[in-house]
What does this fold into?
Amino acid sequence: MAVAQITREEFEKIYEAAIPSPEAMPKRLLRRALDGTIIALSYAEILLSQALRLHGPDAPVGYPDTAYYLPVIRCLSGEAVTRLGELVPILNRMRSQVRDELTFANARLWGESTLYAAEIIEAMHYLVKDEPKVEPWTGFLPDPAVRRYGIKLVDWTIPGQAVILGKARSSKEAARIVEEIMGNGLMIFASDEIIEQCLEENVKLGVDYIAFPIGNFTQVIHAVNYALRAGMAFGGIPPGLREQHRDYQHRRVRAFVLQLGEVDEVKVAAHFGAIFLGFPVILDTPVDEEIKDWYVSHPDYSDIVKFCMETRGIKLVSAKPNIPLNFGPSFEGETIRKPDCYFEMGNGKSPTFELVRMVDLDHVKDGQVEVIGPEVDGFPEGANVPIGTIVDIYGRKMQADFESVLERRIHYFTNYAEGLWHTAQRDMTWLRVSKEAIAKGFKFRHFGDLLIAKFKAEFPAIVDRVQVTILTDQAKVLEALKLAKQKYLERDQRMQGLTDDKVDEFYTCTLCQSFAPTHACIIAPERVGLCGAVTWLDAKASLEINPTGPNQPIVKGPALDDERGMWASVNDIVNAASRGNIPEVNLYTFLDKPMTSCGCFESIIAIFPEANGIMVTTREHKGMTPCGMTFSTLAGQVGGGLQTPGFMGVGRTYILSKRFIVADGGLARVAWMPKELKSYLIDRGFRERCEQAGLGADFIDKIADESAGTTPEEVVAFLSEKGHPCLSLPSII
Ligand code: SF4
Ligand code: ZN
It folds into this structure.
C-alpha cells in the first residue's frame, strides 16, 4: 500500500501542538513514570536472563497463532524476533533510550520502553507456559481474533476501544461502566480486578461480546499488540515504520485507557506507553497533576463513559432510523413469504424503479420525504403497488460516478428493516412489505426516513444532504421512469468509456487481508474485485469515504508489459500489501504471476489443457468439472492469498470484460462453464460481447456445460463437433 513516510520531526510537530509547555509539565507525575519505567525494564531483564540461563539463546520465543512475531516489537522496530537471544540487544536499546530529564517527549519514550518491557515479560511467561490464566481470561489474542474485528475497529464500525485497568469502587459500578461501554458498541480490553468484578455481576465477557478479559498487570500489553496488529493488517503500514504506526493508532484506532483505582509507578509508566501511541488516559482517582487531553481525572462515575469518549473524540452516530420497525443487519437475510406478505411492488406486475441523483445545493431540502400518490392505507391487502424512489443527494465531495454506488445500497438498507424485503435494482426492483410491518404502522414515507438516516450515517464523507421522493401514483411512476431510464443509459455509456487505458489510477482492495493476509485485489475499470462486489467506481467512492481504508489509489504510470498488464506501481503495492511475498503481478494473464486469490471469489478459472483452453466454475455450481475437481476442492487450492498460475479466482462479470485474460487468448479460450453461469452472462450481454470480440453471437453455444459432459473426453468431443475456436489456438501450455 502507498505509505507516505512521516518523519519523526513531522510527527512530533503534530503531537507537540497538543501538549503543554515544559514549565507546565507535571514533574512529580513524570518522576513516577520514570521510576516505573526503570522498574519495568529491570523486571524484564531479570526474567530474560533467567530464561537465557535455563533455555539458552536459541530457545524459540513468540505468541501462539500469530504471523506478527512479538507484535509490539515487530510493529515499532520491524524486528522479527523468534529466538530468546535476539531480545537482549532490543532490551538494551530500550534501556539506553531512557533519559532522566523530565519532559513530555522523554516520558513518551519511557512509555515506549515500558511497552517493550511488558511484551518481553509476557513472552517470557509464554516461554515457561504460565499464561494465560484459565477461561475466561484470554491472555494473548491470536490473529484470528484480530481479523474478526480489526477492520471494524479501524473503519469505526466499532467506534473505539476501551482499555480498562484496575478496580472500580464496587462491583455494581464496575458492571455498569462496562455495560455502558458495551452498549455504545466499543471494543473492550479489561485487565486486573475489574474482570472479577464483572464476573461477579454476570457481565458477559469474551470474544463474542468484543470484550476481552485479558488478564492482569503486564498482560495489558495484549490490548496494545492487538491494536498494533490491526494497524499492520488493515492500515497496510509495513512493520517498522514507527512514526507511521503511531500516527495511525492515534488517528484510526480510537483507544483510550480508563484506569480505575490506585496506581503505582509501573502503571504510570504504562500509561505513558498508551500516550506514546496517542491514547489518552482517564483516571477515576483525583490526580493533582493532569496533562490536558492526555492524562486526566474524572472521579464522577455517572458520566465517566461519556467523558472518556469525548476525551478520545468518539462521537456516536445513531444508526437506527426513526421508523416503527426493528432495524439492523441482523434482518438482512429475512425473507417474506407470500402468506406473510401484505402487498408487493414490482415483479413484473407493477412498475418500479429507484434512482439516486446527485443534485446541487439549491435542489435539496435536507431530510425531506415526500410521498406523491396514496400512502399505504390507499392500497388494499394483496395489491400490486407501483413505486418509484428518487433519492436526491448533495455533498461537497459527491461525484456523479458515485450515484450507482449509492443506489446499490438501497437494497441493503431496505432489507435491514424487519418486515421489508427488497431485491434487484434500477427498474427491476421487487419489494414486499409484511403484514406485521403494516400492523406496526409502516408507511411509505418510512422508506425515505430509513434511506436518509443510512446514507448519512454510512457515507458521511460524500453525503451532506438527502431528500427522498416516493411516487406511488402509477401515472407519475411511469412518467418518472422515463427519466430514470435515461439516467441509467447515460451511466452505462459513461461506464463503457471507462477503460483501463483511460484512467490514471487503479485501486487496491485489501479488505480480505483479514483472512488472507497476503492478498490484495487490484481493481481496474475492466476488472472487478474477485468477490464481484467491488468495482473500480466502488473503490473510488470508498476511498473518498475512508481515505485510510482498504481501497488505496495506485497511480498507474507507464506499463512494464502492456500485453500481460504489468506495472511497476502495481508491483510495488502488491509487494508491500503482501509483505514481500508477491513481488510481481500481471493483470491480463492467469498463467504467469497472476493476481492472488483470497477466498471469496465468485468463480474460478482453471487451465484445461485437453481443450487447449480454460474452464470456469462458480460457487453456485456444486457439480464436478472437467478438471476433475468441484468448486470447493478447487477453491481450497486457489485461495489463501497465493499466486497459483493456471488457476485464479475471479468476479463473474470479469468474464464480460474486454481485458479478460487477454494475454492468454481471452474469451476464445473458454471451453466449459456451468449452465447457470451461461444464463447469468447472457442476461448481462454476453452474446453482444462475443460478437464484438469477433467470436459470433452464437459462441456461447459452442462452450460446453455440464449437459455436454464433465470429463475432458466428453467435452473435447463436444468442442470439436461445435467447431470451438480454442482447438485451433496456439498451445496454452
Ligand atoms: Fe476486496 Fe472483494 Fe478483493 Fe476481498 S475479494 S479484497 S473484498 S475486492
Ligand atoms: Zn476475498
About this structure: The pocket of zinc ion (ligand 2) is lined by residues 512, 531, 598-600 (CB under 6 Å). The longest strand covers residues 387-394. Confidence is low (pLDDT under 50) at residues 1-6. The chain has 23 helices and 23 strands.
